[in-house]
Automatic annotation (TrEMBL):
This is PhoD-like phosphatase metallophosphatase domain-containing protein. Residues 310-543 form the PhoD-like phosphatase metallophosphatase domain. It comes from the Eukaryota. The lineage of its organism: Eukaryota, Fungi, Dikarya, Basidiomycota, Agaricomycotina. The keyword Transmembrane applies. Coiled coil: none annotated.
Length: 658
């Protein structure tokens, strides 16, 4: 039986290597996280219990360098003999193949390399698995801009006590100095209240700002001494006054799903490559970003031009931490908070969050896979998971219209956004499908209210949902996405069809898809689902159907040439109600850039550009339906600030006069 036994370490080693490759480069699956240590231990035990055949031979005839014949000899009489003989032959001819297949070898050096590869792979997997537990990032200091309004912004910062001394820290802010202009003095902003109960994180508001204006802020002690961090002031741009009828031209980014160091590289535990790619594209030269030190007028002009094309914010649609991938790190407050700190510690992510406001939604992996809250805020592990999400990502978001909830809406000029919470109120998957709800009563009412307000006060309406709205994705999306909530989904879609220019933005599937929802007579709704920003995608296995079974009938008027001359005829056209018009599944690093241009109200335009692995993979232009806007008192009053915005547009800067 010697030969069969000799194959056991070969098989175990190969199983281990394939699992390690899949785990570190393709998908960091929890199943592989279990298979890996088992396969590795079994391989070690097998090696230890079964001395390799060549060693037996070595021992028996005492030769340091056994010949090929000697190696093959013990197997000759067996039915597997030919196979083994072939392998040993391969060994002597092709060392690389021998090492790759971990075949038994007579060469000590080859055996050593084979074993070293497995040990290195095991250590790599261990590093990848253990870093989230070991790297606590407890000293991390950071600040970023959260919600941006026309007249105020939310600023979040974390400043744990340095040398155990807590000090009062305040914001100082000013208008961003223009090149060549003299130094503008700082205004004292609000004081932070850093508290261990909130993991030394706090959110404050800078109020009394002008709309559509550039500012910068820094952090200082109460006596006005600048703190070492941030080393250069953080810049931000207030949103335009939504009451101005002039239209807007701006862009923003949308994506979801990120984790550190995947696909894995050794000793890169803090890297999030998707953000490295993004910052290289947005801010190609660090110098182009430091406008304060820039005195060259020509350079500053190109800078302003570049800046006007830069995105105004990033919408991040959840799976910001992977609390349970590859393995669940635990359900305590500290377990969840540590994962957020680790992300903010990443210098890849820092290059983005210090320059770009980020508005967050969460999804299941901020809590646990495919979480459904049933509206029960005490259902574990929701309380601890939501505490960490709230501190790091939700408090800096726009306020919800219902206090201490996570759904919210906001506006950028004449574009309106509603960001849903698809986890806290959703019914469990075990319930009867027709009775399942995703949003819960209060959120559903808030959504309908927002939709009808936005109907004629906003040109584009962005409905933001972490999980896809389409029913076309299979696998677990059939119950975890909107497909598993058919009754609620149908009524939402019906309402959205009645509103022109509705765009659904989603993430979650680690693929990109563009879907249109057609109606017999009402408006077409479109969905763009973009992910992952920096995480795995699944090669080869595809679960998206290209269209749904349901069809709608469109009446079209066509010109027909008859003998009596041209005449209009009506043609009925059957088209799918739900139709995928672009599908790009591959790519570890994806985001969509959405350009909105409503400066010509007769022809509002939306352009989408999908970037995959740093390259433009798809572009799409949508000519929106023209809208006659009604200004609404619900938008808040910015009349006086609106005047300044008008002055700014014609190049007069009233701040110089005040
Ligand atoms: C301000 O306070 C810091 C410590 O908080 C101290 O080092 C510095 O000397 C003080 N500066 C002035 C001008 O009082
Ligand atoms: C720009 O700022 C970065 C740090 O944010 C600094 O390393 C770099 O030297 C600055 N470049 C210029 C030209 O000032
Ligand atoms: C939540 O965190 C607290 C404090 O860390 C801990 O005592 C509690 O057991 C955690 N709850 C769960 C369900 O793990
Ligand atoms: C939007 O406006 C149209 C036209 O006034 C109306 O028919 C439709 O019901 C409105 N939709 C919603 C959701 O308010
Ligand atoms: C278009 O006109 C031709 C005669 O020129 C006629 O035979 C045909 O049926 C018409 N098509 C439709 C769809 O009415």
């Amino acid at each position: 039986m010697l030969h069969v036994q000799a194959l056991i370490p070969v098989a175990l080693s190969t199983l281990f290597r394939i699992s390690a490759y899949l785990f570190l480069q393709v998908i960091p699956s929890p199943i592989l996280a279990i298979v890996l240590p088992i396969a590795f231990s079994a391989w070690i035990i097998a090696l230890w219990m079964l001395p390799s055949p060549s060693e037996r031979k070595e021992e028996s005839d005492g030769k340091a360098h056994p010949t090929r014949t000697a190696t093959v000899a013990p197997f000759h009489y067996h039915s597997f003999g030919r196979l083994i003989e072939a392998q040993v032959y391969v060994e002597s001819e092709d060392i690389v193949l021998n090492i790759l297949l971990s075949l038994p070898s007579s060469s000590r050096r080859v055996r050593w390399v084979t074993n070293a590869i497995n040990i290195a792979l095991f250590l790599a997997a261990a590093e990848f698995l253990c870093t989230p537990f070991l790297d606590s990032a407890s000293d991390i200091i950071f600040t970023r801009v959260g919600a941006v309004y026309p007249d105020n912004v939310k600023i979040v910062a974390r400043y744990p006590p340095i040398d155990d001394i807590t000090q009062s820290i305040r914001i100082i802010w000013r208008e961003a100095p223009k090149s060549g202009a003299q130094e503008i003095s700082w205004h004292d902003g609000p004081l932070f209240n850093f508290d261990e109960n909130r993991d030394w994180v706090d959110v404050v508001r800078i109020k009394g700002l002008w709309p559509n204006s550039h500012y910068e802020y820094s952090l200082a002690t109460t006596n006005g001494t600048l703190l070492p961090y941030p080393s250069t002031p953080i810049k931000f741009h207030t949103f335009p006054d939504p009451r101005l009828p002039s239209g807007n031209k701006f862009s923003f980014l949308v994506s979801s799903c990120m984790t550190t160091n995947f696909p894995y590289l050794p000793f890169q535990g803090r890297r999030i490559k998707g953000y490295d790619l993004l910052s290289n594209l947005l801010y190609p030269k660090d110098s182009a970003y430091n406008s304060t030190t820039d005195t060259d007028v020509a350079a500053s002009k190109t800078l302003t031009k570049e800046r006007s094309m830069l995105p105004e914010f990033l919408l991040f649609l959840g799976d910001f931490i992977y609390a349970d991938v590859p393995i669940y790190t635990g359900s305590t407050l500290e377990d969840y908070r540590r994962l957020y700190r680790r992300n903010y510690q990443s210098s890849s992510f820092r290059k983005i969050y210090e320059r770009l406001p980020i508005f967050h939604a969460y999804d299941d992996h901020e809590i646990i896979n495919n979480y459904a809250g049933d509206g029960d805020d005490l259902k574990p592990p929701f309380p601890n998971a939501s505490d960490a999400f709230e501190i790091y990502n939700a408090n800096p978001n726009y306020d919800s219209i219902h206090e201490s909830h996570y759904y919210y809406d906001f506006r950028y000029g004449d574009s309106a956004f509603f960001v849903m919470d698809t986890r806290r109120y959703r019914s469990s998957a075990t319930d009867d499908l027709s009775a399942r709800v995703m949003l819960g009563d209060a959120q559903l009412a808030a959504f309908y209210n927002w939709l009808s307000r936005a109907n004629d006060t906003a040109v584009f309406k962005f409905v933001v949902t972490s999980v896809p709205f389409t029913t076309l994705w299979g696998h677990d999306a059939a119950t975890d996405s909107w497909a598993g909530f058919p009754a609620e989904r149908t009524s939402l879609l019906q309402a959205m069809h009645s509103v022109p220019n509705v765009i659904i933005l989603s993430g979650d599937r680690h693929e990109f898809a563009a879907i249109e929802y057609n109606h017999d007579s009402l408006h077409t709704v479109r969905e763009f689902s973009t992910s992952p920003l920096s995480m795995f995608y699944i090669p080869l296995y595809r679960t998206l159907k290209m269209q749904g079974a349901e069809v709608v009938t469109r009446i079209k008027h066509r010109l027909n040439m008859t003998n009596e001359g041209p005449e209009y005829i009506t043609v009925e056209e059957q088209i799918p109600a739900e139709n995928v018009f672009k599908y790009i599944p591959s790519g570890n690093y994806k985001w969509s850039t959405i350009d909105v241009d409503t400066t010509d109200l007769e022809m509002p335009v939306l352009r989408l550009k999908l970037t995959v692995d740093g390259k433009t993979a798809y572009s799409y232009t949508l000519n929106g339906t023209p809208i006659k806007l009604h200004t609404s008192t619900a938008l808040g009053v910015f009349v006086s600030t609106g005047i300044k915005d008008m002055f700014n547009k014609i190049g007069i800067h009233p701040s110089k006069w005040f």
